[in-house]
């Protein structure tokens, strides 16, 4: 993996387990220095151990900081602690936070009658107020060249309407709303996006009740990448997928999406909620929108058929035009040969030669020989009348012949070849008009049939 984030500093909250650990490992592999946020004392050891391992493995600076995102002072204390540590570590150099991953969150599922005020309060403090206060604390230390990256970890529960998630789904919908607002307010500092991972193989997902998993089975069945794979996924996961409709995502797959959003290549993407998969949030949606789907599919197929028909018609027209042009070039070539012979003939001659032909230096070219036997009085020779010597006429005939000489014309199906052919044909037609003006003759075509052809002499 290339170290595309070398020298940058990022914050990952909820970094002691699950998706947070995977994101931290992914960013570290790309060279990003890390501040790993965790909440409870029980997470202290795994968070500090992760920081040490990533620092040694990837030669980066790391710091694990305990801060409760559900308290008014927790987010600010995380930033203050990190600032003090990294300024001291880097000899007082400017403290800048390039990446913020608001990953910490809690999920307390309950059907509406059982929801308590305490559950509501805790969920909104951690999932909504926490990201808001942390982003607020980070704001003064964001880049000023739009290179900053903020990613909020949301959930499909924000819009799916899953049972038991009145509170959790509401917190994630609020986070997505803030994502769109921050994308505008922080546009000169950073891009701000959110991710809806769907079910992910974590402790949080494993803690869901069988009833909840049954509720979301239809959702999972509509997600194209959630099919469990024999021989690739674990036997346990494959077996569970038979009951649950498919497998959850691996944490590394979600970390990869985060990696894309924090890269320099994502600079034109902000205010978006990213679904790693095409998911149907409601099994009945496909039925209710069937008419729209048929219309869209019919329109798409009609457009494709129209394009194909246009191409076929275009080929037919192109072939017809091409035939006409080659036919015309052949006529000009034949007329040029006749004119050349008439220019080179004396009053009586039986030899004919194309333009440019001449005897070889050795004199080996055949010359017309008188017949060894006297011509019978009954024998007659048919020939066109010779043309009077004319240097300009001869030049035009030679040029016309050269322009349409078949061996020099390209048969390639390319714009350059077609344009060259059209240009040569047009120039040859111009030469023909000049020749016809000098000779007073025109070709016999349906349009010029009323003109008289040159008189044929019998000798």
From TrEMBL:
<feature type="compositionally biased region" description="Low complexity">
    <location>
        <begin position="348"/>
        <end position="379"/>
    </location>
</feature>
<comment type="similarity">
    <text>Belongs to the short-chain dehydrogenases/reductases (SDR) family.</text>
</comment>
<protein>
    <submittedName>
        <fullName>Short-chain dehydrogenase</fullName>
    </submittedName>
</protein>
<dbReference type="InterPro" id="IPR036291">
    <property type="entry name" value="NAD(P)-bd_dom_sf"/>
</dbReference>
<dbReference type="InterPro" id="IPR057326">
    <property type="entry name" value="KR_dom"/>
</dbReference>
<feature type="region of interest" description="Disordered">
    <location>
        <begin position="348"/>
        <end position="388"/>
    </location>
</feature>
<dbReference type="GO" id="GO:0016616">
    <property type="term" value="F:oxidoreductase activity, acting on the CH-OH group of donors, NAD or NADP as acceptor"/>
</dbReference>
<dbReference type="GO" id="GO:0048038">
    <property type="term" value="F:quinone binding"/>
</dbReference>
<dbReference type="InterPro" id="IPR002347">
    <property type="entry name" value="SDR_fam"/>
</dbReference>
<dbReference type="GO" id="GO:0006633">
    <property type="term" value="P:fatty acid biosynthetic process"/>
</dbReference>
<feature type="domain" description="Ketoreductase">
    <location>
        <begin position="8"/>
        <end position="203"/>
    </location>
</feature>
<dbReference type="Pfam" id="PF00106">
    <property type="entry name" value="adh_short"/>
</dbReference>
<keyword id="KW-0560">Oxidoreductase</keyword>
<dbReference type="InterPro" id="IPR020904">
    <property type="entry name" value="Sc_DH/Rdtase_CS"/>
</dbReference>
<keyword id="KW-0521">NADP</keyword>
